[in-house]
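Before relying on records like the one below, remember that each one covers exactly one chain. Contacts with other chains, cofactors or solvent are not represented anywhere in the record.
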Amino acid sequence: MPDARPPRHPRPFVADTGGTRALHFAKDEVQSRMDVRDPHALALAYTRMMMGFLLFVPAPATIGMIGLGGGSLVKFCHRHLPHTRLTVVEINPHVIALRETFCVPRDDARLEVCEADGAVFVRETARRFDVLLVDAYDETGLPEPLATQRFFDDCRAALTREGMLVVNLHAAHPHHAVHVDRIRRSFDDAVIVVDDTARDNRIVFADSERPPRELRLGPLRRPLLLDEGSWRVLQPSFARILTTWKAQS
């Protein structure tokens, strides 16, 4: 008798439209989008906002990522942060199987993509990251194990003393306020919440220090590791983070 149970890990599908390539679990939900002509660009506004960690940690030695998706963040970091070691954790093997389709580089001395449960990884890892990026939506939304108080506590424990957690949250999620409150509890309220420029997502920056480190006021400056072209793309998002930080200070 055939097994009627749903597959443990759903298979995403890829759609090419007008020079872009998108990763979907459902037709009307885009998980990741890539400009086919520029595969390393950050095509979605929230990914550009997540790179705002460079305002706080300008030269991270280690970055951990929970969720691979189409690999937008890992591709950008691999290209523009040449001295950073990247560890990406993805639970769905079908997503990992599409890494070549989305031009995600092969594992090398600086990059490791591993198939594992992100919640278990941060709980059990002995590694300590300067930055931990959490962007791990699936076909049902944000998986519950990646939104518990225990998970955010474990994220803080997996950071270096001056490390930063960055979490992508959907602004319209019914439990959005609960998730933000849990992050605040785990990080003693050392948190900045910023809408992306499309206002569909909210990015939470949580600082492992108490109190959060001070951003330098004055003109918004290009991080030394970014070229001028990348800086022009990221500057509006970085300016939005700085404005939000000033308003909350």
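Residues 40-248 form a domain with the Rossmann fold fold (CATH 3.40.50.150).
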